[in-house]
Prior knowledge:
It is a single chain. This protein is 26% helix and 38% strand. It has three helices and nine strands, in the order H-E-E-E-E-E-H-E-E-E-H-E. The chain has helices at 8-33, 81-88, 131-134; strands at residues 38-45, 48-50, 53-57, 61-68, 74-79, 101-104, 109-115, 120-125, 137-143. The longest helix has 26 residues, at 8-33. The radius of gyration is 16 Å and the shape is globular.
Amino acid sequence: MAPPRSTGRLGFLLGAVAVAGLTAVVVAGLAAGAGRSATVRIDIHFSRSSPPEIRVRAGVPVTFELRNTDPIGHEWIVGDAGVHERHRAGTEPVHDARPTEVSIGALGTVSTTVTFDEPGTLAFVCHLPGHEAYGMTGTLIVER
């Protein structure tokens, strides 16, 4: 039997990112399903969030660990359409007072804990100039 072929560094990195994203969704779902708190890691790299979709349970505290490997700052705003419409106007330069609105400095890591009370679908977006248009968005699904 022939040894496995290497796909090179890029293939390895892409595989690692896919596994990390899937792991975040599975870990959040398993821990939340058991009625305990959950931790979800979101990696920001090249102005993209990974994983792009997250599922959590309503009523269960979730700690989001936001890791920014970019040399520029970002923000993580999660909410409904009204929340994002307000932020598109650039109402606040820095976020640190609400757990669903967080600023992450260049090469920084920030944690925030949120309990979503109601099932539904929310978006998480970076509203810094041009970031949303570039694709720095994701979906957060809150399940029963």
